[in-house]
Write a structure and sequence with these properties.
The protein is 41% helix and 27% strand. It has helices spanning 2-16, 50-70, 104-118, 122-131, and strands spanning 32-45, 76-81, 92-98, 136-149.
Length: 150
């Protein structure tokens, strides 16, 4: 009862007494803004497979990336070599950068465009990817997003 009475008196004083009340700080914007996505695949190249895989990357992989870039689906791509890989780490990272994720319908349209461009079916492309298991293993895949300072 005493606490209730004290609260009522304090409230009455605030209402009737002119005084500076602390104001709530204005909401601040988050200091960073979201940018592009980068999909990064970590690849382990088996002993003796570096030349074969480098040839694949320099020809077929780059060709497909250039096709995607020409369509505006990606903005950039990179091949990054891990110069000092520790035991179990990928030796190559393949990075593709793009502004937005494709929805399901757009993904289907892109798959059909890729198939037409490659002049092969999804089945053939999957088989070719499996053949590269002879000299490389995909170890990881990450989706990163760049954040820029406002």
């Amino acid at each position: 009862m005493k606490l209730t009475k004290t609260m009522m008196i304090a409230t009455a004083m605030l209402v009737t007494t002119p005084m500076a009340l602390p104001t709530v700080a204005a909401a601040q914007e988050f200091p960073m803004v979201a940018g592009d996505y980068s999909q990064v695949s970590g690849i382990f190249v088996k002993d003796g497979g570096a030349f074969k895989y480098a040839t694949h990357l320099a020809t077929k992989w780059v060709d497909v990336q250039e096709f995607a870039k020409s369509k505006g689906w990606i903005s950039d791509y990179k091949i990054l070599i891990n110069e000092y890989p520790r035991d179990g780490e990928p030796t190559i990272y393949l990075m593709t950068t793009f502004a937005k994720m494709a929805d399901a319908a757009e993904g289907e349209r892109r798959n059909k465009a890729y198939d037409a461009y490659m002049k092969s079916s999804a089945e053939q492309q999957i088989a070719e990817s499996g053949n590269r298991a002879e000299y490389r293993t995909v170890q990881s895949s990450m989706l990163l997003r760049e954040y820029k300072v406002r």
